[in-house]
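Two quick folds needed for the group meeting slides. Do the first one here.
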Amino acid sequence: MGQQAQRTARRRRLGSALRAAREAARVNTTDAAAAIHGDNTKISRVETGRHRLTRLELDTLLDLYEVTEKRTRERLVALASEGRKKTWWCQYRDMLPGDFKESLTLESDTARISVYQPQVVPGLLQTREYAKVVMTGSPDRVTDEELDFYLDFRMERQRIFDREKPPQYLCIIPEGVIRQRVGGASVMAAQLRKLLAVSRPPAITIQIVPFSQTAFTCTGGAFNLYSYPDPMDLDVVHISHLDSALSLEEDETVAKYRWVFESLRASALSAEQSVKLMTSIAEELEQE
């Protein structure tokens, strides 16, 4: 795809910041394009997140726009760096849907992932057997070969927790998710045992909203909230649908989802209480 790459949330944020800086400096698109040896169309693509800038081009524009504050420049460089990084999954790029690739990009170097999943155990915590049942329940028909690929890929994604600086992972799921016998008692028991094995706050925290909870929080469905450290200073909400996905990075919208997540945490059992509940359910399933 070359420079006409799929937009990501970070590239859109960079484009918006560059446009604001250009307008504040009262530089027109013609002069900006000339500075990086392009045309007005190139600047338009940059500012809408559809064109990757080289480091030299970015520095040139920041100088032209008189962006001198060190912290601001560092943040914009961090946002731009995504387009030049090689990811572990790039070798599978042609086999992955576009929306899923954006999700993987968000996931690749986040500092914290906050997840609310009201239907199934989140993919990064699934066993292979549980994942197979979930995938075969999708409306997208796949061959056995494709299913094996996606299962292998999901297991490979979970190695994010093995890297030198893994993201902090916070997961909220309703009690119904861990009680539904997806795949049968043995598959679900093994899935619960995996949740118990990986639960190690604050690195990976799993909290269950119990049936006994009387408070209600309107969530709108499942979502992931990706948070990045300084100098990137960016939070993105990612929502997956049956046939598409949506990334939201507007401050007001992100703040709303952050409030929802914290409200869910407040209504959930503590990590320790959640472990006890999951252990109890796993033992019940194993006795059958």
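Then this one, please, same format:
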Amino acid sequence: MAWDAVYRHAVPELKDAMDLAYLTGQRPADVISLRKTDVEGDWLLVKQGKTAHKVRVIMRHDGADNSLGTLLKQIAARNEHFVSPYLILSARGRRVTQHMLRDRWEAAREAAQKSAIEAGDPELGAMIREFQFKDIRPKAATEINDLKEASRLLGHTEEEITRTVYVRRGAIAKPAK
């Protein structure tokens, strides 16, 4: 819910960064560091800054683009008239820095929070206020049902790290009757 609210108020480059962070499960710094040359064949090649782990995220299956492949084509089309080697660019074609990403995030989050409160939903407003860009990584891990796949996407060598730190869902239970 907080994701959708912030996304509705985001500028295009923030939407691109959010989508790329979600689809790849990568940290904010790694998302804004991605370059056009990191797209190689059917893969997006990620070298994580924090751990130096390398992750290859598939963009196509049997010749058809998946959601990541589609997103990267949309980003390329939007940025085709800019010379920057980076994927996440401002409307003027400048590389989006951590500071720029934070400013855009805070503006979208504040607008989303204000809209929720004005619509009479202060609980949603509070959830939005607590939502941070770095929460997208756990969102990605949580929405992948296979723990091994989630660990692989996040670049973890041990599934336990993914389970205890990133997966934020409870056990599935059936009602009493």
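Slide caption for protein two: Residues 98-118 form the longest helix (21 residues).
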